[in-house]
Write a structure and sequence with these properties.
GO terms for molecular function: DNA binding. Keywords: DNA-binding. This is Integrase SAM-like N-terminal domain-containing protein. This protein has 117 residues and is mostly helical. It has seven helices and no strands. The protein has one domain.
């Protein structure tokens, strides 16, 4: 749990506006289980640390390139972590009313194999 907290704190330090993202997502706890919410926040924090920007400031091409890199990197997290990344970003974009961007994220059941291949 400490490692998870340090990822979020690092993202807050690098991109101070990320604290608002965490607060916004945390206020949605009634819609998701706490564990799911923590996983979403952790994955989005890693995303923010990678780009040094908030998710809404990142282009679809950059997002797709990042997701492809995750699937091809042998040190990359598990499939479950990848799913939390995609679902977390999708949830976040929808929360912001950015449904078009949320829909553009890969549908894991159909497209994960395409991304990997």
């Amino acid at each position: 749990m400490l490692f998870c907290l340090s990822i979020v704190l690092s993202a807050n330090a690098m991109v101070p506006e990320f604290a608002l993202v965490v607060a916004k997502l945390s206020n949605q706890v009634d819609l998701r289980g706490q564990s799911t919410l923590n996983n979403y926040i952790r994955r989005i924090a890693l995303f923010v640390l990678h780009f040094n920007r908030l998710p809404e400031q990142i282009s679809e091409d950059e997002i797709n390139e990042y997701l492809v890199t995750l699937t091809r990197d042998p040190k990359s997290p598990s499939r479950s972590s990848f799913k939390h990344m995609v679902y977390g970003l999708r949830y976040y974009y929808r929360l912001l009313g950015m449904n078009k961007k949320a829909i553009a994220l890969p549908s894991l059941k159909r497209e994960i194999k395409t991304i990997i291949d």
